[in-house]
Amino acid sequence: MPGRLPTTSDFSSHVDLTITPPPPSQAPVNVLILLHGLGDTNNSFTTLGKQLALPETACISLQGPTPLPFDLGGFHWGDDIIFDQATGQMEFDTGFSKITRILTSLLETLVHKCGYQPREIILFGFGQGGMATLATAASFDAELGGIVSIGGPLPSSLIAASSTSPSKSKTPVLVLGGSSKTLITPDAVSRLGSRFHYVDYKKWPDKVADGMPRNRNEMLPLMQFFSRRLRSRAGVPEGSVEIG
Fold it and tell me: CB atoms < 10 A from the CB of 34, how many?
């Protein structure tokens, strides 16, 4: 039986999220969890979930657990706030143990309370949000439907642990980045391969820096990934049981 549509009451009251149901008259066979970038809120990714309108897919847009300091506005996913002394910019890679616990709890709720299989859940993150999805998937004990990380490399804590990790995650990863001013370097892609069996890297040749897709061509790799990984029960009689 497919999972039921989650509600906000299924999750901890300390987690700020919005839930967008699938298109009308479609069952929520899949769940797409969306994580915004550093300094943003979940409003933009709530809108993204509605615009994607993926078939048979409910979207959960999660907000970073910690607000930025100094009245900067927005939220972040890291365990700490660190500023680069040379540039004054906030560092992305500041530990992800807190959000890993939050996301793992959310995944377990979807599985045990809402009736989803891990394979029916995809994580999507931008920048620091992408790093948070990778940190969670690498430690989760089951294969998820997939990870999409735009401009988010593997956190350094996972790089350090890769030599002692007993096995790689089977969750497939799609990572995307700009053509030059990007965090998704060849070394970053190689490091992803040290923790995940299946890594697909797409470089946007017409986008210099990392950023959200702006047009049909930039969206194409994401939609191809979704078409491969999202499950469908269209045409399956009600009450049917999947075997295997």
Answer: 26
Instruction: Read off the pLDDT of each residue in 199-220 and give the average, rounded to a whole number.
Output: 94
166: helix, coil or strand? coil
| pLDDT at res. 196 | 96
201: closest CA among 154, 239, 139, 159? Answer: 154
The type of residue at 31 is: V
Helix ranges, the chain (H): 43-52, 97-112, 128-139, 156-161, 186-193, 216-229
At 121, phi and psi to the nearest 5? Answer: -120, 125
Q: Which residues have CB under 8 Å from 75's CB, separation 6+?
A: 36, 39, 40, 41, 63, 64, 65, 66, 67, 68
> Helix, strand, or coil here: 70?
coil
Cα(84)–Cα(143) distance, rounded to whole angstroms? 35
Tell me how far CA of residue 96 lies from CA of 93, 101, 125, 157, in angstroms.
Answer: 8, 9, 13, 8
Q: Which amino acid is at 160?
A: A
H-helix segments, 12-66: 43-52
pLDDT score at 244: 42
Instruction: Give the model's confidence band at 241: pLDDT under 50 very low, under 70 low, under 90 confident, else very high.
Output: very low
pLDDT tens profile 33-83: 999 999 999 999 999 999 999 999 999 999 999 999 887 789 999 988 877
**CA dist., res. 232 & res. 30, Å (int):** 8
Q: Which amino acid is at 45?
A: F
Q: 56 Cβ partners below 8 Å, 6+ apart?
A: 22, 26, 27, 28, 29, 30, 230, 231, 232, 233, 234
**204 pLDDT exceeds 50?**
yes
